Amino acid sequence: MTNKALPGVRPQPMISVADVERASRWYQDVLGATSDHGGPEYERLLVDGTMIMQLHRLDVGHHHGALADPAVPLGNGVALWFEAPAFDAAVERIRRTDAHVVTDVHVNPNAGHREIWLRDLDGYLVVIAEP
């Protein structure tokens, strides 16, 4: 019997950031997430009790070594895409922050839904889209 509530594989992206605590606050404000770990080196962020992403300090290797090359700009070529069923509420939350909006609310002609595109504090492209 398969569990239809959860897929067999779930993404749990981990991104390297310069300041974990500052990035955590930004994502909490923008996504309505909550901290599940906290601290200056590593963070797990939850929405509705599900981990949506992890933050890892750029210059800390822990047991696995460095995750990114400090000589390469963070966020280069990465888009973090989040589907938000309460899209209008997400946009209102974003407007209350100092988030850098790259492309304001618009309809994606390929997907037929609304999106807003942001840059986070480390240069990652963050897209919030309605279902």
Labels describing this entry:
single chain; globular; 2 helices; 131 residues; 2,3-Dihydroxybiphenyl 1,2-Dioxygenase, domain 1; four-stranded mixed β-sheet
Question: What general form does the structure show?
Answer: globular
Question: So what's the CATH class?
Answer: Alpha Beta
Overall structural domain count? 1
Which consecutive residue ranges, at least 5 long each, have pLDDT under 50? none
Count of helical segments?
Answer: 2
Q: What name does the CATH topology carry? A: 2,3-Dihydroxybiphenyl 1,2-Dioxygenase, domain 1
Radius of gyration: 15 Å
Mean pLDDT score, rounded? 91
Structural class designation:
alpha/beta
CATH architectural designation: Roll
Strand order in the sheet with the most strands: 1-4-3-2
Largest sheet: 4 strands, mixed
The proportion of residues in beta strands is 25-35%
N-to-C span: 28 Å
Q: Tell me the total number of β-strands.
A: 8
Looking at CATH, the homologous superfamily is: 2,3-Dihydroxybiphenyl 1,2-Dioxygenase, domain 1
Percentage of helical residues? 10-25%
